[in-house]
Amino acid sequence: MDKSEILKRAQDYIAEEKDERFSKEVQELIEKEDYKELEDRFYQTLEFGTGGLRGIMGGGTNRMNTLEINKATQGLANYVIKAFPNEAKEGTLSAVIAYDSRLNSDVFAEATALIFAANGIKAYLFSGLRPTPELSFAIRELKAQTGVVVTASHNPRMYNGYKAYWNDGAQVIEPHDTGIIEEVNKVTDVKTMTRVEAIATGKLVIIDKEIDEKYWEMCKAQLFRPELIKEKAKDIRIVYTPLHGTGAMHVEKVLGDLGLEIITVPEQRDPDGNFPTVEKPNPEEKPALTMAVELAKKVNADGLMATDPDADRFGTAFPDKDGNWVLLSGNQMGALLMEYCLLSRKELGKMPVNPVIIRSIVTSPFGDYICKKYGVKMEEVLTGFKWIAAAEAVHESKGTGTYVFGLEESYGYKVEKEVMDKDGVSAAAMCAEMILYWRSQGKSLLEHLEEMYKEFGYFEDRAISQNFPGMSGVETMKNIMSDLRTKAPTTLGGEKVTKIRDIQNSVTFDPANPASKNPIDLPKSNVLQFYLESGTIVSARPSGTEPKIKFYINTMVPAKDGSDAWFADAKKKAAELCDNIAKGIQTMIDAAK
Length: 593
Hints:
This protein has about 600 residues and is an alpha/beta fold. The two termini are about 20 Å apart.
């Protein structure tokens, strides 16, 4: 892109951006003649994708700022008015807006609320930061037509985002996602009003405890054994960190009401969008839990819990028999929670007719074996909890199944029906009960997990992420995915690839016979999966929220005799295979750069 085009885009942006903080940034870059930075900010427009917006905050069309938020909200408002003509005519349209602790989240949330209000849509705005799952709950509770949460979830501090929800409390999917995108792209004028005017006209309503209290009660109502918690809660001590996000008030309240002793990491309790104690506020990553582990050791805790800034992801760690703290993967905790829910339903006579569990395609098949034992259907959907919620809704509406649990490997779990998204708060409550249950059986969670491996087979998973920033990175990502399709590997980690599933092209095929293709029934998505002869699955998927490709390795060693010797050997084999596959993936990435 030449300098004249960059300058024109920058000047056009300055003329349109009403927030001086962001326009000033761009003006200063022009004065410094920093064309490299200007190019990165203007080589493309931050796209309103199928889930909304996410990007680095700052001035520019390729950044998260007030101008992009305003356009997105006006487009969403226009679509909602068209989608609900009767409510629009009656003046009964409404939207719920929540936000997390990130920098500018409160500013973006209020701008969103005032645009809805100016378009005749009553805006219910939370009085302070709230978790994403509570936003989903509030949409259903208030019978709103749409909702927005301003958050970038677990991304680094420089990011923020904007997720759009529909009247079912789930993130928008087809056809609404494409319809909203079309409206956003057509926006030329944005309606807004002042906060004073919006409140005076009744179009802006501030909400807080009336929703909080119902949400807390809902989370506690999911539990199977309240009598066990009442009797044994004081037997365990939990260290918790909200990683400077929204979770403290809710996790402390829900678990505290249950009588559990919760010790929150003091340095990470208060909301802070600078996330001063962590590089990434992501409970999936071990460094983010360093302070929590240190505190857990100091107070001799029985477990550690963590939520990300918008409290939809839930991470855990537990001490092993040698006193070493082990961070459980999303697949491991998902399998534990799933099995506990199924076991409890069976023991207590609460298993519904045609029970269904739903997982994402990159989640370990560990749960498939558990479902088979309990006679429960396991369904696969695309990555993203909106697809789990959509599948749940289809089963409920058609009567083809009853949802009992949903999970994805990226620390997402949903134990309830009242929230149509992953929920770290309700997961924390269920995990606490599960800890107490297995303790009542004389086992720790880690000991029970080992029992599950010996019964169902040993499963190990790895995730590899490679960043590709800037304009050249976009091209590199395209080249890698193209090469994987046109020059598909026939072996990975020394193992033969027996099947490839290309979800973008809706087919599966044997790489030894590419012409022999079988259709698959999933929406199109840029994902490739390689099935190895051992049962291992390797998936490649460009991130929808960051400039990176994610590779997922899910290994499996079949159960044998349940002995300690088999278990040790299985762990060794799985680790070696994961290591070999990871090396092969890295070599491929390096070659494509």
